[in-house]
User: Fold this.
Amino acid sequence: EVYSDVTQFLEQLKSTSAKIRELSAESRAEWEQAATANQDKVEANMHGLFAIMLGLLVLLYCVLLLIVRNGQRIIGRERVELEQADQALRESEERFRGLVEQSIAGSYIIQDGKFAYVNPRTVEIAGYDSADQLIGRDPLSFVAEKDRGLVAQNMRERTEDQALNKAYGFTVQRKDGSMI
Assistant:
């Protein structure tokens, strides 16, 4: 009896095992199919993302190229404008020099309390041989002692824009000590 009862269970176990194997094989096949489908989707998405990234990189390159070319155009225009301004400045300086260098009046530029420029007539009036002997010197050192206060006041007013145009005379002590 024991044998007959176990036999019946053995058959049932074998049949259940077979069903489990069959279901397992079907599940495995479905799983493999799903995995393959998912892999295909992932690869398709990767290709799509790769195409998008490539497109964005191309777009970025184009934008940067446009920015660089625009910058080059701007730099080129500025370079031309700078060269034109430089040329105009040189021409203006030449006209200034022509006017001032040939003037019968003494002309000078004072910068930071020192002569920065003197024309040939100023050199002649002061009794020196060249402008180099006057450049960098204090202009008040050439003014006669009696006029230094007046000249210093007028210089201050001019540098502070209080007296943009003011005519006045003063005595200059020449290199040889004579007064003019």
About this structure: The first strand starts at residue 108 and ends at 111.
